[in-house]
Amino acid sequence: MAARSAAPWIRTRLRAAPLQALSLAVLVLVTAFLAGVLPRAVEDAESAGLRHALLGAGPNGGAVEVVGSPPGPHRATELREEAARVETLREVGEEIDALLPAPLTAAPDQGSLGLQLSGSLPSEDPGLPRPDGLPPRFLVAAQDGLESHARLVAGAWPRGEDVRAADRSAEAAVTRATAEALRLKPGSVVHLPAVQGPDRAVRITGIVEPRAPQTPYWAHTEVLRTPGLLEAPGGSPFSTQYYWHAALLLAPDAGPFLYGLDPLPQAYWRISPDTTGLTARDIPALQAGLASLEGGPLLSRLRTVVSSDAEVSTGLDGAVDGHARLSRAVSSVTAVAVVGAGAVAGVVLLMAQALTATRRRAELTLLRARGASVAGLAGRLLAETAVVALPAAAAGQALAWLLLPEASAWPSLAASAAVAATACLALPVRAALAHRTSRVHEVRGDLVLTRPSRRRTVAELSLLALAAGAVLALRGGGTEAGGPLVAAAPVLVAVIAALVLARLYPLPLRLALRPLARMRGALGFLAVARTGRGSPAQVLPLLAVLVALTTAAFGGAVLAGIGDARDRVALLATGADARVERSRAPLPDGFADKVADMDGVRHVATAHLDYSMALPDGTTAAMAVVEPDAYARLARETGLGAFDPEVLRTAPPGAAPTERSGPVLSAIASPKTAELLGKERHRWGGPLGRFTLQVTAVRDTTPALPDQEFLLVDGESLPKALPTVVLATGSGLDEAALKKAAGSAGEHTELTLRAAERAALTDSPLQSGAERLYLGAVVAGVGFAALAVLLALLQSASERTALLARLRTMGLSARQGRRLLILESLPQAVPAAVGCVLVGRAAVALMADGVSLELLALPPGTDAAQAVQLRADAWSLLLPAAGSVLLTVAVAAAQAWWTARRTAATELRAGDGR
Questions:
Q1: Helix, strand, coil percent values for the chain (each to nearest 5)
Q2: What is the Cα gyration radius of the chain?
């Protein structure tokens, strides 16, 4: 009879500890999901930012325009007319589309092609409007697709069949806006100068309305849609003259008619690229293709298709390059969060496997004593871990792919594979190192008595050097310096702090043992003594908590800095929570009282603004005439140049006012204005009357004029200075009521809300994606810190349970047992929490000068009044640290409660090695 085979190792182990296998699977799945979704989210934000940047270039800059000249006057007339026909232009357009580089595919029905004059021509017809006596000028174009992009409002569509270059007249349409501005209607005739002979006539046959006026067909050359007043060249700055500029839309087939108006009209093809499928991976190809298109091989090939003088113009290259620069700058800052979150996840994975190795120490020691090799032992552990970790990592990667399926696969796969490899290798490597030699019994670890080895000292000094180098590089070159060392600076600081705290930790324990030994109760001494007899390997939980909470603190500082910057810029745009300003006349009487009675309004101040105060150097400054008390309160509430109202009320020292000088006023000035005016008195006259002022105080800014040079005076002596602006502060302002009030205040009245300005500051999806990434880093840091605390407590849970059971047989009550476990947890939790607060604060202070948040916080080109810097956020510092202490205490109390419900015999079984 054949011998029965032994049960397979993996199946036996999984059946013996199903809960531990399930816990490892869940941990690996969540970590692999986060690792897999992170690069996908970054790439998704970069792709959305690229598309946003291209759309932000506008219909003009966001299109590729190819301009060429048709055959010149020396060529045959039939050839020239054939080249101006729309069928020929369409064929050339198809060849141009085929030459575009791969990422630049033309969007269907978005581009345009046609023939137009190389410049506008004047019309001397007497019935056309002349604002300053200058004749209007017309751009004449024969653009393809007129009937499909516009609807006929009046008249008939222009006809272009059989139009020749020699024709003396042609038919055209105009838009409704052009017809109203130029006083045109069906049947009107516009005469334009011809190349030779009498003027050519363009008869208006119809008035059209664009179907989609914001599409590139109409918006690329705005005059096709809407006429405008242009400034005449060569005019005096003191007598500017304007003329009307409009467009006449010929039939698409009427291109040959333009030869009679211009010997070399322009043929054009305007291609609007399809940006819906563009991703961040296309940026290099886009940059190379656009460079080749504007001045490389593709331009040469285009000239063989269009004409020898063909030119390509586009604003896409500037948009793509600007996005690439923004992406590099943002990525250098977000790399800090990515490295921090990855380090936290890695340390927690190592902790989980260290817990497994500790729990199975006796089992593995017995296997080694019975002849198991280190390689065989490590192989078995690798196999049983891989059976659990690899499917979990694959499931996490699949979830990441389902959430963001369009991103590149390789970075996400590499991140999830790194998680799987860490989870699979941590336990075998730890076991192989711990069981290199067979041991009869384990040496008890003692945190107080154990001295660090020389190898550990060298490793710690090496890490200290790396951390110092990373911080110096970050402070010197900023995050733009790049590199993994700079990105890992907060993590390295936390690692060094954990190692320092681990070295210093035994000292307070030794000091605490002596007084506790002389105290009457035994609980305090027993708790501290057991803490001191813990394993020196407890540095790993401390490292996990410090790295996690430092990452959370750094992420909270970034979010706080971004919020502060946006709040500041929004405040400088309005000067208060709401601003109502009328530019050409005072606000109605009682308007300020009306605003003050609205819901949510806390305080209201008024001012009269004069933007034309001439300074001695020839420049101008703005003057705000205010009521001192109300305005001073507003300045205090907003933090914009707070002052004592008596500064404005008190007359400046010197001679008394005279009839010639008018009232003598004290003024608060901006620094530059104060420097120009000095300490002398200055006399002004104007609509407000004659007055004299002297600068008596200087402030950097003021609510009424937060972003410019200013003068601030008391309005009591200037009765003609009626309010032109109302500033209101409060929370929960009634936006609808404010808009209604501003609308009833008369023409040229504008309402600006601080909340609206604040909401508009997130310009790019790349910025909002980076902000969400840091928010995720904060949440992940707090979550992994809580998990690290739980794992650290689980590592010694069975030992504590057995201790309580033994002490219960000696008379320990349930209440005393609960106090013992809580007191035992505090010497570990409290120093770790205090260390987290101090390290997080120190990390923010050390790296504040090297981390620039302007590109994360504000749209490109925003003029920040002050540098946007990290700011330690109290909530992200204190709340996670306090939460870790509370969680530790709660778990200890829960364990004591649960142990008290079980009998001592259950915990003190014969042969139990706890």
A1: 55, 15, 30
A2: 39
CA–CA gap between residue 901 and residue 894 (Å, rounded): 11
Angle between helices 297-305 and 283-295 (to 10 degrees): 50
Q: Is 821 helix (H, G, I), strand (E, B) or coil?
A: helix
Q: What is the pLDDT of residues 508-551, one digit of tens each?
A: 766 666 676 666 666 666 666 666 565 555 566 777 788 878 87
Q: How many CB atoms neighbour CB 231 within 10 A?
A: 11
Q: Enumerate residues 6+ apart whose C-beta is below 8 A from 810.
A: none
Q: Are 33 and 258 in contact (CB under 8 A)?
A: no
pLDDT in the model for residue 910: 44
Buried b (16+ CB within 10 A) or exposed e, 424-448: bbbbbbbbbebbeeeeeeeeeeebb
Q: How far is CA 763 from the centre of its chain?
A: 8
Bridge partner residues of 695 (DSSP) = 667
| pLDDT, position 356 | 84
One-letter amino acid identity for 297? Answer: P
- CB 668: neighbour CB atoms within 10 A? 24
Q: Locate tokens 């047992």: which residue?
A: 817
Residue 31's pLDDT band (cuts 50, 70, 90): very high
Please work out, in degrees rounded to the nearest 5, the angle formed at the alpha carbon of residue 335 by the alpha carbons of 333 and 339: 140
Confidence of residue 170 (pLDDT cuts 50, 70, 90): very high
Rounded Cα distance between 510 and 894, Å, is 29
Neighbours of 40 (CB within 10 A): 21
What are the residue ranges of helices labelled H in 577-627? 591-596
Per-residue b or e along 286-315, where b marks 16 or more CB atoms closer than 10 Å to that residue's CB: bbebbebbbeeebbeebbebbbeebbbebb
Instruction: Please work out, in degrees rounded to the nearest 5, the angle formed at the alpha carbon of residue 108 by the alpha carbons of 107 and 109.
Output: 115
Q: Rounded to whole angstroms, how far apart are CA atoms 802 and 793?
A: 14
Distance between terminal CA atoms of the chain?
42
User: Which spans in 371-522 are helix H?
Assistant: 374-403, 409-434, 454-477, 484-487, 489-504, 506-518
Q: Which helix (H) or strand (E) holds 243?
A: strand 242-250
Does residue 913 register a pLDDT over 50?
Answer: no
Question: 722: number of CA atoms within 13 Å, CB side?
Answer: 12
Q: Which one-letter DSSP state was computed for residue 229?
A: E
Task: State pLDDT tens for residues 369-428.
Answer: 888 888 888 888 898 899 999 999 999 999 999 998 888 888 899 999 999 999 999 889
β pairing state of 691-698 and 664-669: parallel
At 621 the three-state DSSP class reads strand
CA–CA dist 177, 180 (Å, integer): 5
Angle at 279 between CA 274 and CA 282, to 5 degrees: 85
Longest dimension (CA), the chain: 131
Judge contact between 70 and 347, C-beta under 8 A: no
Tell me the torsion sign for CA atoms 116, 118, 120, 124: negative
**634, 703 Cβ separation under 8 angstroms:** yes
Nearest-angstrom CA–CA distance, 231 and 245:
10
Distance between CA atoms of residues 583 and 502, nearest Å: 66
3 state SS of 170: strand
d(CA 269, CA 146): 15
Residue 536: which of 459, 435, 444, 457 has the closest Cα?
A: 444
Q: How far apart are CA 796 and CA 908, in angstroms?
A: 16
**Separation between Cα atoms, residue 246 and residue 182, nearest integer Å:** 8
| Structure tokens belonging to residue 482 | 């790049």
- pLDDT tens track for 473-519: 666 655 555 556 667 777 878 888 777 777 777 677 666 666 766 66
Write down the pTM of the prediction: 0.77
Q: Residue 148 CB: number of other CB atoms within 10 A?
A: 10
Question: Which residues of 438-594 form beta strands (DSSP E)?
Answer: 578-582
Contact status, residue 202 vs residue 190, Cβ threshold 8 Å = yes
Strand-pair category, 137-143 with 200-210: unpaired
